[in-house]
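Contributing new complexes? Match this layout with adenosine monophosphate.
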Amino acid sequence: MLSKFKTSSGTSRGQPKLMPVTAEFANKWELFRGLYESSVIKHFGDINQAGKRLELMFARPEIETATGLKAASVSTSIYNECNFRTILPKLYTSPIETIFCPDPNQGLYCQLLLGLIQRDEVITVGSIFASTVLRGIKFLENHWHELCYDIKTGRLSDWITHSGCRNAASLVMKPNPEQAGLIENICNCKSWEGIVRKLWPKARYIGCVCTGVMRQYIAELEFYCRGLPLVSTSYACSEAICGINLEPLCKPCDVSYTFLPNMAYFEFLPVENDHDESIEMKRNDEDTELVDLVNVKAGQCYELVVSTCAGLYRYKVGDVLMVSGFYNTAPQFQFVERKNVILSVDQEKTSETDLFKAVTEAKALLDPLGFILTEYTSYVDTSSAPGHYVLFWEIKGKEGKNCKELDPKIMVECCSRMEESLHYTYRIYRKRNIIAALEIRVVKQGSFEALMDYYVSKGTSLSQYKKPSCIKSEEALKILDSRVIGKYFSPKSPL
Ligand code: AMP
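Output block (do not edit by hand):
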C-alpha cells in the first residue's frame, strides 16, 4: 500500500516528480545506510564512536498531494525518520531544528556555527552533494567574522529569528573568546587552501557525491580540503536505491558503485555514442532490448531502468552508467551523465560529458593566470539564426585577485578552445556556419548561488540540489543573464 510520495529534485528536467513510497521501500533506506556506512567504517575506523559529523542538511516542508498522501524529498523523509532523530544528537553537530528551519540561510549559519563550536569533535565534514559543501564553505568565507563574534560572546546574531534555531543554539553556546580567536586566526589568512582541515583538524574525510555533474567541483573542493579524501559513498535517487562505493579511498574520478540487487529490479538499456566521426541516426529506444543486471558487459554504457517494490515498472531514471568491473559477480558502474542534458542547434547532440570535457580543456587556460572557474552552465541561444551555444561562467581570482584583471583575450581564447574540444559533428557544423560562434558570458560572483536559491524557492531541497548543466527555464535564464559582466565569442571556426 502506498504510504506517501517522494519528490525528486527536478533540477535537470525542470519539474520535481512524485515517486511512490511503501513501507517496504522506506525500510530499504535504513538497510542501505547500514551498508554504505560499513564500507566507510572499514576504511576510516568507527566514525560513530570517534566523534561527530558536521553534515550540512536541509529539509523541505512536506506537501499534501491531491490524494491526501504527503510528499517530501528523500532527504526530508530521512531526516523525519524516528531512528535518524534518535541518533542525530550523538552523531551529528546539527540539531534537528536547524535542519528543518524554513530559511536555508539561517539553518546554514547555525549549522556552521555549531560545527565550529564543536570543531574538536568533528570527525567528518560533508553533505549529500559536493555543491552544497562548497556553498557552505563560501558562506563561511562571507560570514566568518560574524560567526567568530557569536562564538566569542556566546550570543547568536539577531538576524537568526527562527525560534527553533535560537533555542537549539542557546543550548550549546557560551562565551568562548579563546576558540573564537583560534578560528579567527585560521580564517584570516590570505589563502583558504586547506581551510577545512585547519578548522576541523580531526576530520578524516569529506563525504559528498563528487561524481556525475558534481565532478566539476572536485578541483575546488580539493583546494579547500587539501589532503583530506573526498568520499562519494553511494548512488541513489528518488526512484530507487542503487549502489555503494566499496573503495571510498579511491580518487573521485575513479569511483564505481557496486549495485545492490536487493534494492530494486535493475535493467539496462544499451547506449551508443552517436557522434563519433559521422552523424549516425540513433536507434529508437523501443528497438533496443533491455539487459538484466547479470548480463551487463564491462566497458558498455547503459541507461538505468528500474522496477521497484513501490510500484515503478521499467522506469527510466535518465542516468547513463558504464560498467567498470565486478565485485565478485555484482556489477560495478561509473556514473557517466544525465541522459537528457543535450545542447543541439541542428542535428548535432552535445551531451553533459562532451560539455564537461570541453570546459575542462578551456578552463586550463585560466589556472596558470591565477583564476578558477567555479561554476558553469549552458544553453542554446536560437534568438538569432544560426543558433549558438552559450556558456555561463563564474570565475574567481585566487588569493584576492579581482576578475576585472582577467585579460579579455584569454576569454576569447577559452571560447576557441571550447569549440576545438567539442565533437566532430559540432566542428563540421560550425565550419559550415550551421552553428554560429560559441559565446561565454561571464557572470558576477554569487550568480550561481542566486540560481540555487531560485530552484530552492521553487521547491527543490537544498540538500538534493543539482545545478542543471543546461538551462531550460526562462526564469533561470533571466537570473543568470541579469548578472552578466562580460560577453566573449569564439573568433574563428575550429580546425
Ligand atoms: P533526485 O532528483 O534528488 O532523486 O536526484 C537523483 C539523481 O541524482 C540521480 O538520478 C543522479 O542523476 C544524481 N545522483 C545521485 N547520486 C549520484 C552519484 N553518486 N553520482 C552521480 N549522480 C548522482
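Reviewers usually confirm one structural detail per submission. For this one: The first helix runs from residue 23 to 44.
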